[in-house]
Amino acid sequence: MNYQETISWLYKQFPNYQQEGVSAYKKDITNIVTFFQRNGQVHSSFDTIHIGGTNGKGSVSHMLASILQESGLKVGLFTSPHILDFRERIKINNQQIKQQFIIDFTQKYYHEFKKIKMSFFEICVVMAFNYFAKENIDIGIIEVGLGGRLDATNIILPKLSIITNISLDHTYLLGDTIEDIAVEKAGIIKQDTPILIGDHNDYVNIFESIAAQLDAPLFYSKQYNYKTDLRGVYQTQNINTSVTAINILNNYSYNISNKNIVHGLQNVTLNTGLLGRWQIVSEEPLVICDIAHNYTALDFVLKQLNSLQGNKKHIIMGLSKDKEILKILSCLPNNYHYYFCGSSNSRIINPNLLKEHFNKYNLKYNIFDSSIDAYQLIMSKSNQNDVMMVTGSTFIISDILKYLYKI
Fold first, then answer.
1. Phi, psi of 338 (to 5 degrees)
2. Pair 194, 248: CB distance under 8 Å
3. Phi and psi for 331 in degrees, rounded to 5?
4. Chain-wide mean pLDDT for the chain?
């Protein structure tokens, strides 16, 4: 198989959460354990930082990678989902995994993948860890895919675990309450391993209890006065979590300077290629892309949008079927015009099915088959003082950025 055939096979042959949602979720890590037992524990050959949480884990992962790169380390970065290219998921110092490695690795373990019935995400995890080991990285930043306790990444024994925050998301998988979700996220806390909590909230007693049982030193994010090139106001908390993490690492034999922190935070996009976080793709009119996809995240970005000056404000939005859609709709200000859209990705709900709810919340809206159709219409009518926000899902941001970048 060539590269495109290999990627196509990976998508089509295995349960893929990015495409299928709940049906692809594996409720144990047996497959990962089995694979590494048979093929070597390569994930133990490099240091790791494990990052979970409801919102912010992608931004914190990229901030930490940027800071550690500035210190001269060879940094592996494993994140999901991707926006433009599968290879975004697996990087070393902002260089995407080589196509030939993907081809060779898939072919080498093709029959074993089928025998074990490994999921798409599980294959991504074992591919990333093998690639990082082969390339002899110094440290890997590993973002949890979903939850924590039963996530495929939870096989690692990290130098530091981080839980950014907790809010209601993926309730159909992780539990109906904040407490239930906190327990799942807390599954990444390891024996004698420091755990950093990014957001001090009502549920922290759960983390404190589990950390105490495991003799895991527990830390909370402190406040700092650093700046980042990432423009979302919500990044303040992610900055604080990232800098606190670096200071913890420095107490555990690392040597990251303040200069590394400053330069790393100011060059996250350049150093890591992060996409879709308050990403400005046009200045006149102002067009902003943000992957906010649950109530808490959307509340942040809509408040920031409200603070901007603009003649007219347009919001292009698509929503995943597995989100708390009615709660999201209930938080949408009715002084904007919404362009609810579908997608070629089957995870995005057909907005025609939601008309009753749009009307219930007195939203001004139009419906489009795709975000691209909505974008083209708005651009044809807008003047340079208008503001357009594209949001609601990683998949909607993927659609629009692929269009803009002509991919």
1. -110, 145
2. yes
3. -95, 0
4. 92
